Amino acid sequence: MQQSTQKKRKVLSRKQVVKRIGDVLSGIRVPDLPYPAGKVAADAASDWRPLLLSCWTEQRDEPVTRVIRSVSLTWSVRQINSAYVADRIMDVFLKTSGLHPELALRIARLRFFLAWRMNLEGAGALNDTIVHWLDSLQDCRGWSGSSGRSGRALLDQLDSLTIAVSGCFDSGDVGPVIEFCRQWEEDAGKREQQNERLRQRLLETEQGAARQRKSEQTARALVGRALQNRQLPQAVVRFIFDHWFALIKQIVWQEGTEGDNWRHASKLLEWLVWIGDPALSDKDRNRLYTVGEQIGDRISDVWNRVNGKPLDDSALQGIQSVMVDRLRGETPELVSALPEGDRFSWDPSWLSFSAPPEAEVEPLLGKWFVEGEGAAERRRYFFALLPDTCEALWTNGAGVKLGLMPWPRFSTALDSGTLRLLPPLTPFGQVLAETITSLSVVLERQTLQREEAAREARARAETLRREKAEAEQLRQQEEAARQAELARQKKAAEDRRIADEEAEQQRLLQERETAARELVEGIKLGGWIVEESSGEDKDAVRLKLAVRINASRKLVFVDRLGLNRREFLVDELVDHVVMGRVRVLGSSAEFDDALSRVVGRIRVGRN
Fold it and tell me: Is residue 421 within a helix (H) or strand (E), and if so which, with residue range?
């Protein structure tokens, strides 16, 4: 495929989406869906509202197209396409919305409601109020099953949606869902005001707690490092834990670790350890005297500066007793400086604590992060990085604390992929626009294919018509030729029959003439003939042969009175006998028999 055909199509605007949905619902055809064989009248299609209501009430997660395929009912093209479009929109929403899978799955069950309404209203099923509410679900991007009370509250609201949609199915009107969306928006505004106060209060509380943890952990790290593996007099250990440890925490709380008080307190802690541990101080007795003279005043000075009041003299009595014993060269009884076991935990990293670069932190602040996969995933909002402890403060986005994570562990989890940024969420309106845009492309392609198929069908029909016409013309020509041949054969047969009949008649005529001639030649003088009547007023006349003139072949007949009535030439009389106008008496029976035989043969020849 050429690169130019692979360019991403521009997504339709909201107005264009509204216009295109109707075309998609009526025009698109999807393979393997149970489309009717022909056009189904509106009143002939099955009512699917009870079926969809049942699926919604049971909160089923299967596609609408699978549901309508599972029953043997008659569906219209618009119903099938409405089911497919609703499934397509919600399937894309499930994959691209970015919401927690459990939450997205509950919203995707609206496919049953959308399929029902799109069949009735087309684009009206996705009015601005419903789409705006679905878009506002981005505010719930941080929801997960472990969100606690706020998570359960959201599920309770979605249970109200279940009731509202069921009410729409029962009443046939979308009013309950519209009211639910409006109420949701009002509640969201109130929650946002409350959440803002909770977030501010949480930040102040956690910053104070972080400052407290920093002072505690830094003091522990300083004391732990100083006392690690040391054996000291009990008085020194008691002073450090009863007084100096609290002073160090106070310094860190008030000033941090950059001021003079911190530096002096750390140094005096080292001196206390150095004085109390003979293994350290016995090597330099001169310095021991110097430190012993100054340490009490310096401890009091630092204490007074930090707390604003002097240290009780009783607090230093133990230290002073140890100093006296050490200056005398005596070794006091030693105990382990740190408590046995893990009763005093400390982390040396707090002494080298440094905040990460702001450029590294800034892009991550205010972002959502995901830990885990599928339904077990947990979502956390990086609300703030506590400056005193460099801990990421996790919330649910609504001012509820979900936990803390030190920055080093945060960076490690992010690098390893255990913790990952939540990809940008896709609003429902964008899902809708992209889906209808994609289906519009399919519709255009199918329309072109149908037009091309129609053109090809018309071309094939025209070709078939021409071929049929040519075949019909050829058949007619062949039939005409066959009919002409049959006519020719019939005419030839008829001509032969007529010729045969004429020949037979000629033969019979000759026979009659021969027979008639024999009769005429055989008439004797005195023989009688009868001349048949030639009109209504004339009767037959009997005549007797009176004279035969051989030279002229003339016969003279007279009536019974002897008068000269008629004269016939022989040939003429023969003709009259053949034609039946004259009968020869005496031999007329034989001649009639001959004529009957001749006539019979003529009839047989005709048949």
Answer: strand 419-421
**542 has pLDDT over 90:** no
Residue 176 or 561, more confident: 176
Element (H, E) at 378: strand 378-386
Nearest to residue 301, comparing CAs of 269, 253, 271, 264? 264
Single out the residue of 421, 417, 390, 415 nearest to residue 405, CA to CA.
390
Give the residue from 180, 277, 259 showing the smallest Cα distance to 218.
259
Rounded distance, CA 215 to CA 222, Å? 11
Matching residue, tokens 């054969």: 489
CA count, 13 A, side-chain hemisphere, 261: 20
**Paired sense of beta strands 541-549 and 334-336, if any:** unpaired
Q: Would you give the DSSP letter of residue 374?
A: G
Task: Match 């981005």 to its residue by tokens.
Answer: 138
Q: Cα–Cα distance between 606 and 145 in angstroms, integer?
A: 112
Q: Which of 223, 486, 210 is nearest to 346 (CA)?
A: 223
> SS3 of 527, please?
coil
Q: Please give the radius of gyration of the chain, using alpha carbons only, rounded to the nearest integer.
A: 65
Reduced to 3 states, what is the DSSP secondary structure of residue 333? coil
Q: What is the distance between the alpha carbons of residues 220 and 211, in angstroms, rounded to a whole number? A: 14
Backbone angles phi, psi at 594, to 5 degrees: -65, -40
Host H or E run for residue 503? helix 428-521
What's the rounded mean pLDDT across residues 441-457?
Answer: 89
437: CB partners within 8 A, 6+ apart: 9, 10, 11, 12, 17
Cβ pair 90, 418 in contact under 8 A: no
Torsion angle of the four alpha carbons 84, 87, 88, 89, in this order, in degrees rounded to the nearest 10: 120
Residue percentage of the chain with pLDDT more than 70: 92
DSSP class of residue 40 equals -
